[in-house]
Amino acid sequence: MLLLGQFQTHNGHPSQPGVNYRLDRKAPSQNKVPLGRRRSLGRVIKTLAPGHRRKRAGQSVYLISIILLLLVFPTASVWADHTYFNTAAPLLWLVGKWFVFWAAGVRLLLAGLRQFFQPRFTAQEIFKMQGEEAFPVVRELGMANFATGLVGMLSLARPDFTLPVAIAAGLFYGIAGVGHIAQHGKSTNENIAMVSDLLIFLVFVAYVAYVFLG
Q1: Which pLDDT tens digit goes with each residue over 41-56?
Q2: What is the 3-state secondary structure (H, E, C) of 88-133?
Q3: Chain centroid to CA 9: how far?
Q4: Which of 86, 93, 106, 88 has its CA nearest to residue 162?
């Protein structure tokens, strides 16, 4: 502020007439939050938001289901059938049997049900479509996955279903995996889908090759 006049003081001394003294009084800076800290605080608040927590929970459930249905359950079933039940069938035949049941059967059936009743997850988290225009297409994809999954599960009762389901599901997983590779800026769920699709594709390729060439 500006102090003018003969009877005002500056630092304890009388002011000179006609002389302007400027006292700069700055607000204390200790109350200001640095920009970097404000941004970090904003990220923390966003992380704690209910919508973000639901999204993270959905990703965790998706990852766990992929690990169980595509790796743990089929591998454990192959081991139990080969070791515990002493099945005389070749190992690759057991791989085809149980991976068709779990990866093509149970997984596609459950995925089809979710895509039909909850198309928003597939549309937004996998295909990055924010509107509802894609919901009818996702529901049709869900019905196709449900049908394939049902036949895959029935392959335990009808072993002659195993090879056709392995071929159909292998093509589906392979094309879907290549499609995910071509996408840029993939989300966590897209990366999970890409890796799992290509893994199951390779398993079914090995099984089909064994059946035709073995």
Answers
A1: 555 454 455 555 666 6
A2: CCCHHHHHHHHHHHHHHHHHHHHHHHHHHHCHHHHHHHHCCCCCCC
A3: 69
A4: 93
